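User: I'm putting together notes for a lab meeting next week and I want to include a structural view of one of the chains we've been expressing. I don't have a solved structure, so I'd like a prediction I can at least talk through. The sequence is below, exactly as it appears in our construct file.
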Amino acid sequence: MTGLEVLQSVEFLNIKGKQVAVLDVENWQALIEWLETLEDLQIAKQALNELKAAGGNRDRAGWLKWEAVKDKWDED
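Assistant: Thanks for the context. Below is the predicted structure for the 76-residue chain, given as structure tokens.
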């Protein structure tokens, strides 16, 4: 299910005079995953733009070498 489909599945209820939007749990989780994917795509696009601006030079783009951070990765 796409993010748009999830948003279209919202049901509206009136509770104590206030209109609220309701999603079932599966659709809520799908919406969160969709938003996380969008965020990841934005991060990747920014990183690639920075790499292009640095002429393809990873050091100038500020990219770290795997060897320098792999031990930290294992700690997390």
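A couple of points you could mention at the meeting. The longest strand covers residues 11-15. The two ends are 32 Å apart (CA to CA).

User: Perfect, that's what I needed.
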